[in-house]
Amino acid sequence: MASLPIRDIAALILSTTAVFGILWLVVLCTYRLWFNPLAKFPGPFWAKVTNLYAAYHSWRGDLHLDMLRCHQTYGMRRTASEDLVLNAFLGNYVRYGPDRLIFNTAESLKDTYSFGKKVKKCKGYLTMMHRVPNTLTQRDKLMHAKQRRLLSRGFSDAALRSYEGIIDLHVQRFLRCFDAEPQSTDWSTPKNMSDLSDFVTFDITLDVVYDSQSDMLTKPDNRHMLPTIHESNIRVGVLMPLWYLKGTYLERFIFPRSILARYTFLSFVKALLKSKAEAKSEATAAKDIYSILKGSDEREGLGTNEIAAESTNLVVAGFDTTSTTLSAFFFYLARNPSAYKAATSEVRAVFRNPADLRNRALFPKLIYLRACIDESMRMAPPVPSALFREIEPDGTIIDGHFIPPGCDVGTPIYSIHHNTAYFPDPYVFYPERWVVHADERNRDAVERGQSAFTPFSIGPRSCIGKSLALSVLQSILASVLFHYDFRVAEGELGRVGEGDGGSREWGRGRPGEYQLYDHLTASRLGPFIQFRKCTLN
Ligand code: HEM
């Protein structure tokens, strides 16, 4: 028998592989669409068949918007008269991946994230891990409890008090950014608040975590670090639903820039860690989180790699999130005159002179300022989409539905913060929704909102840095409102950060809404704000 030429053999292998490949795809899609245990849940066609759907939206930065769009779309039903009406119950759950569901209720929030639930962090968190898991990325519950207990020493009341001087120092530097103009009674040149917020929060976080100065507010030298973190977040956001691609050639092919960016940031941290290690001999009292962790080294078995992973994560988790809240606050307050007036009046009444601003005992009196901060985080949550949790063996009930083991579930933060069942007029900046009236008539409404408010998440994996973040935000904002008046920059610059009016992209059209680009955490542009020294003080 004459042997087949090599070309024909290759063609035969290729066509057989293609046929089997197509067959495999057909079987897989058929299974996912009709026989998967989640098949009964509504959702976009492409999300049901592949996690590439979520990865695509993460790459575009509109994952949070698409999740809300799905909750609304799959909550619509046609009446007999062909009108579309919202069937809120149906839209409360959506299939957002072959094995993933998103929910949009306060019940799902509790069922998924509060203490004692049969869930753990999903495999997507593996993509954030470098060498060893830190408190954020640890999937093992017992290991996490141990790591969190150690880390919480850096966030105790005593530790937080010891950071107050550091925060005050950076607040002073932040204020000086608005003083630079010669005529101090005139409005300053427009300031890009997302940049300045990044600078001040990075400076504070690096100082608190490592007792080290990044000086971003005062010098440009280290500012190139910020785009590298952003670039790296894009990669991690895309890989979260496709975690099995981490470390493959495909990943390296798709994200060469992000991988380079990640190593630039890691080299920066490595140099920091080296200088900390060299400074070891000058034993000083632990005044930064790194030293607190290092102090527990021998007894608790936290090795060099663990401390490096933990402290690096704190910088990334801490600065960007706090910065988003800060810039969102300026966006919304500058556009809402009544909220602006109420917040400035409160601050200028509580603090009688500049020295008072360092007195933390007065902060609980800033009830309206805190409501403005909460309302900024409601409308622009710094971690906008779903924090997926994997259901453990035996399955569990989420919001009344049995979910089988191995599936991922999550309650997207931006979606629930815009759910009209908890927040009427969700696109209106309305700090009053957080303040209980003296006659208590709105207590139920406030509590309903609180049940669905989750910028820091809830339960055992909620944010360990919440008190630090709030302390930083209140210190900065009280000082700015005390010393300065501010307004939206005039002209086109004033529109940076807004929705674009007639956008073809879903959810990007509202001029009054601060636009977030969801890459794990939120990136954003502007707002541009002008400042003027307040003449009342
Ligand atoms: C406004 C500011 C902040 C917001 C909105 C925020 C939000 C969050 C959220 C939503 C989570 C849960 C993440 C998840 O489940 O995957 C989280 C966890 C965490 N955050 Fe924050 N965060 C903020 C500031 C900070 C700061 C200042 C630090 C420390 C310097 C920090 C450190 C952490 C850590 C270590 C975790 C992991 C906790 C655990 O899993 O036990 N965060 N944060």
UniProtKB/TrEMBL annotation:
Top-level taxon of origin: Eukaryota
Keyword match Protease: no
Entry's Gene Ontology molecular function annotations: heme binding; iron ion binding; monooxygenase activity; oxidoreductase activity, acting on paired donors, with incorporation or reduction of molecular oxygen
Residues that span the membrane, as ranges: 12-34
Similarity comment text for this entry: Belongs to the cytochrome P450 family.
Annotated protein name in UniProt: Cytochrome P450
Alphabetic keyword roster: Heme, Iron, Membrane, Metal-binding, Monooxygenase, Oxidoreductase, Transmembrane, Transmembrane helix
Keyword NADP: no
Cofactor(s) required for function per UniProt: heme
Matching SUPFAM superfamilies: Cytochrome P450 (SSF48264)
Binding residue positions for heme: C463
